[in-house]
TrEMBL record:
Region described as Disordered: spans on this chain: 1-65
Protein's name in the database: DUF4025 domain-containing protein
Higher taxonomy: Bacteria, Bacillati, Bacillota, Bacilli, Bacillales
Composition bias type Polar residues, residue spans: 8-25, 56-65
Compositional bias segments (type: Basic and acidic residues): 42-55
Species the sequence originates in: Paenibacillus agri
């Protein structure tokens, strides 16, 4: 019974290591393609979903309700 238990523990450890390696590789690939998630730049008004004025008007309207 202990041999089966040791085998299962080794398989679980191997699976965890494999998943961790795969996760790290995927994370590095995504960071290479998209950049570091910690870097935030300025918001470009042309790509923003709502302009600041429109957002302010919506907020004021919602506060009146």
């Amino acid at each position: 019974m202990s041999k089966d238990n040791n085998t299962k523990q080794e398989q679980n450890q191997s699976a965890k290591e494999s998943a961790e390696i795969q996760s790290n590789a995927l994370r590095e690939f995504i960071e290479d393609k998209t950049g570091n998630p910690g870097t935030k730049g300025l918001v470009d008004e042309s790509t923003a979903r709502l302009s600041d004025d429109q957002n302010r008007l919506i907020t004021q309207h919602n506060l009146r309700k």
